[in-house]
Design goal:
By secondary structure, the protein is mainly alpha-helical. Helices cover 47% and strands 10% of the residues.
Length: 204
Amino acid sequence: MPFELPPLPYDYAALEPHIDEQTMHLHHDKHHQTYVDKANAALAGTGWADSSPEQILHSLDKVPLDKRTAIRNHVGGVANHTFYWESMGPAKGGEPSGDLAAAIGQTFGSFDVFKQQFADVSVNHFGSGWGWLVHNGAKLELLSTVNQDSPLSLGMNPLLACDVWEHAYYLKYQNRRPDYVAAWWNVVDWGKVAERFAAGAPSA
């Protein structure tokens, strides 16, 4: 079944003033829709058209070689954007609690250290891509990926993503990526991140 553009889980203006309404319209309605359209075109006739984005990204080495780059880029764009929208929400931010907070403290020393290291990974990523908090099967880890590459293709369980493509922030922040990342913390949905952690990394 072809991919469809999922609706935002909140209103376009819900993340103001941290992420502006105009950016959300452009980012969701134009950029995410383009990834959906191009992913469907790349998957047509491959035998993978009925698979979920997650299944495909877990199995990139099995998709047809002549379409693998297009599938990685566009299916990755579909999955990464949906994950990003669901990682945020209005009146969120703050700090995690419970098992997730304990795991962050154990891995990074403190939440403040984690925030700084995550921001460094995201802000200093060269070019377009993503900053991630993942569980690597043994512990929490920070990484960045280029373009629309996904931690799923590396066998990792993504927990939190920050989109650092310029279209995610340029209308409001221009070239000030650090300001965007600093503001983005105010909309992180730690409840959702904790759900992912509990589901995919119970032994951490």
